[in-house]
């Protein structure tokens, strides 16, 4: 993704060879700021406080956090501690555990003096793999968009509704749900994206809309509640979202509100696709509703909203009475029966145990 004509990924090693730079997403779309992470606690804060967010990027950031800690102290105890501190930051996205397990398994059999260098190399490899994976997801999803476009009048756009940000900013580059959209736009297929604002934190309004502007993709920001109406009016051709954890049976956990979009899509016979790297599949569970831990975030995110005032100040304003209690479940689960198909780097598969089975790790995923 280009920012001001320069290519950026969301995370990269700092020039000092130790620290790690990330785009601090809290300030977008108003300001582009880079934060440098220089302590294990800063990596943890960056994930917990959502300077970085999105399942794949959380995993990569945690991997670099382990690398940082190995340069500080390469002992077994420090490795376990780094894993535990980073794992405790956010409970829902499985890529966090996936990346941390990859790091620990790679490092624990190495002598301590070799761990720091190996850890940075492994974190960089995980980051590179994320980019390659997203490109493959994009290529697979592009064919679905192309197929829908073929059924339209020439020049008529494919209208895609997306929720939250499963874009470039949620990954190292390209995004998952946005990768097919960017490729379709690059291929000259007319696309138009309905961007759900995605309350409470407004990742759609802040981040997805910013990416669409940056890539020159026609888009319209809508309130979360508008999707059902647009679907009834025939103005949505497909829903395309990401996921933080998908069960071995195809249940999909994603940003709160995704389930309601899936219900509306099913009621209106609109295809509902989920784009994901296979690292987002939790092979250990089958029942998303019972087995996926749903993150409960601070209620401030519901009662206070970030924005930019006319004088350019970025600030938070309260939208509810001080006395009103708030609740903030951050994710919900869409049952597999509401998912048309899963778009992975290894192909488009049905959201079912049988559909996912060929992608299982023992089969080489
Ligand atoms: O709370 P967030 O912003 O980390 O939630 C992100 C999402 O829900 C994304 O849709 C998901 O992580 C997939 S990102 C490719």
Tell me about this structure.
The protein is an alpha/beta fold and 365 residues long. The protein folds into two domains: 2-129, translation initiation factor eif-2b, domain 1 (Four Helix Bundle (Hemerythrin (Met), subunit A)), CATH 1.20.120; 139-363, 3-Layer(aba) Sandwich (Rossmann fold), CATH 3.40.50. The protein contains twelve helices and 18 strands. The protein has helices at residues 40-48, 55-72, 76-87, 94-107, 112-150, 178-186, 203-215, 227-232, 258-267, 288-291, 300-303, 353-356, and strands at residues 2-3, 6-7, 11-13, 20-23, 34-37, 158-162, 191-196, 219-222, 238-241, 245-247, 252-255, 272-275, 281-282, 304-308, 314-318, 331-334, 341-344, 347-349. Helix 3 runs antiparallel to helix 4. The mean pLDDT is 97.
Structure class: alpha/beta
Spatial order of strands in the largest sheet: 8-7-6-9-12-17-18
What is the count of DSSP helices, taking H or I runs of 4+ residues? 12
Main beta-sheet strand count, sense and barrel state: 7 strands, mixed
Distance separating the two termini: 27 Å
CATH topology of the largest domain: Rossmann fold
**Shape annotation:** globular
Helix content: 25-40%
DSSP strand tally: 18
In CATH, the homologous superfamily of the largest domain goes by the name Translation initiation factor eif-2b, domain 2
**Distinct small molecules bound, one entry per kind:** 5-S-methyl-1-O-phosphono-5-thio-D-ribulose
Q: In CATH's first tier, which class of the largest domain applies?
A: Alpha Beta
Spell out the helices and strands N to C: EEEEEHHHHHEHEHEHEEEHEEHHEEEEEH
Estimate what percentage of residues fall within beta strands: 15-25%
In the predicted model, the low-confidence regions spanning at least 5 consecutive residues are none
In CATH, the architecture of the largest domain is 3-Layer(aba) Sandwich
């Amino acid at each position: 993704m280009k920012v001001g004509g320069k290519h950026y990924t969301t995370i990269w090693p700092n020039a000092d060879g130790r620290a790690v730079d990330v785009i601090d997403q809290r300030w977008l779309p108003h300001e582009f700021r880079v934060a440098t992470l220089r302590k294990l606690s800063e990596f943890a804060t960056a994930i917990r406080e959502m300077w970085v967010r999105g399942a794949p990027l959380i995993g990569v950031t945690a991997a670099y956090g382990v690398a940082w800690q190995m340069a500080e102290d390469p002992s077994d105890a420090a490795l376990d501690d780094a894993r535990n501190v980073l794992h405790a930051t956010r409970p829902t996205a499985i890529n966090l555990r996936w990346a941390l397990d990859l790091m620990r398994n790679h490092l624990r059999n190495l002598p301590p003096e070799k761990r720091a260098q190996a850890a940075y190399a492994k974190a960089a490899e995980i980051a590179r793999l994320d980019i390659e994976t997203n490109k493959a997801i994009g290529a697979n999803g592009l064919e679905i968009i192309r197929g829908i476009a073929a059924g339209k009048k020439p020049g008529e756009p494919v209208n895609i509704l997306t929720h939250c940000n499963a874009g470039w900013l949620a990954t190292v580059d390209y995004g998952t749900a946005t990768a097919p959209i960017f490729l379709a736009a690059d291929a000259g297929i007319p696309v138009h994206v309905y961007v759900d604002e995605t309350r409470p934190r407004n990742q759609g309004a802040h981040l997805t809309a910013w990416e669409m502007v940056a890539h020159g993709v026609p888009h319209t920001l809508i309130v979360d509640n508008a999707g059902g109406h647009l679907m009834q009016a025939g103005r949505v051709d497909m829903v395309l979202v990401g996921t933080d954890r998908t069960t071995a049976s195809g249940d999909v956990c994603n940003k709160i509100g995704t389930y309601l979009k899936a219900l509306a899509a099913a009621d209106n016979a609109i295809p509902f696709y989920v784009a994901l790297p296979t690292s987002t599949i939790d092979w250990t569970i089958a029942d998303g509703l019972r087995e996926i831990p749903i993150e409960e975030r601070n209620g401030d995110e519901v009662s206070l909203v970030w924005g930019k005032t006319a004088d350019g100040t970025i600030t938070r304003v309260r939208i509810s009475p001080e006395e009103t209690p708030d609740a903030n479940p951050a994710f919900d689960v869409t049952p597999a029966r509401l998912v048309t198909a899963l778009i992975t780097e290894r192909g488009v598969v049905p959201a079912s145990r049988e559909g996912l089975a060929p992608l299982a790790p023992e089969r080489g995923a």
